[in-house]
TrEMBL record:
<dbReference type="InterPro" id="IPR055348">
    <property type="entry name" value="DctQ"/>
</dbReference>
<keyword id="KW-0472">Membrane</keyword>
<feature type="domain" description="Tripartite ATP-independent periplasmic transporters DctQ component">
    <location>
        <begin position="35"/>
        <end position="163"/>
    </location>
</feature>
<dbReference type="GO" id="GO:0015740">
    <property type="term" value="P:C4-dicarboxylate transport"/>
</dbReference>
<keyword id="KW-0813">Transport</keyword>
<feature type="transmembrane region" description="Helical">
    <location>
        <begin position="20"/>
        <end position="44"/>
    </location>
</feature>
<protein>
    <recommendedName>
        <fullName>TRAP transporter small permease protein</fullName>
    </recommendedName>
</protein>
<comment type="subunit">
    <text>The complex comprises the extracytoplasmic solute receptor protein and the two transmembrane proteins.</text>
</comment>
<feature type="transmembrane region" description="Helical">
    <location>
        <begin position="139"/>
        <end position="163"/>
    </location>
</feature>
<dbReference type="GO" id="GO:0022857">
    <property type="term" value="F:transmembrane transporter activity"/>
</dbReference>
<comment type="similarity">
    <text>Belongs to the TRAP transporter small permease family.</text>
</comment>
<dbReference type="InterPro" id="IPR007387">
    <property type="entry name" value="TRAP_DctQ"/>
</dbReference>
<keyword id="KW-1133">Transmembrane helix</keyword>
<comment type="function">
    <text>Part of the tripartite ATP-independent periplasmic (TRAP) transport system.</text>
</comment>
<keyword id="KW-0812">Transmembrane</keyword>
<feature type="transmembrane region" description="Helical">
    <location>
        <begin position="59"/>
        <end position="77"/>
    </location>
</feature>
<dbReference type="GO" id="GO:0005886">
    <property type="term" value="C:plasma membrane"/>
</dbReference>
Amino acid sequence: MIPTDEEHARGIVAGSLEGAAVACRVFATLLLALMCVLIMGQVVGRNVFNSGMPWADELARFCGVAIVFLCVPLLALRGQHIAVDMVPMMLPVRFRRWQAAVVELLVLAFAGLLLWSLYAFLGRAWKFATPTLGIPNWVFYSPVVVAMLLLLVISGVRFASVVSGRATEARKEMLP
């Protein structure tokens, strides 16, 4: 069967979102490795050489924040977030779709609210820098902004998929 233009477009969007989310995960993995090296360097520096690296704590904190947020889009795209599904599984099948739509709307609202909050915060704090390394705040928080923008798009696509009924056809994990 030849895919329609709409199916082809959905495939391109899904592939693009998957690629972007996987790129975030790869970057998060590299940051995890860097964070481990930084922490080990701090431990060795303090205990063996009696000398600390004050900048390493700040960079490790950046890595930790970025890791958490950069993994969120991929988990959302694949429906792999931790979920308590006892109540949805007790619902009749016809209500599960609506429950899934409400969940996607709540995730969409969360991403939008966090982006708006970051906009308000960075509107005042973008010109300041971190104390030790002097990383501008807009750089420090950029992984969060990128991840939440991606989450916003992914949640919108998942919501549209659930409401249109395509979620059960395309991906079983879209509905509980």
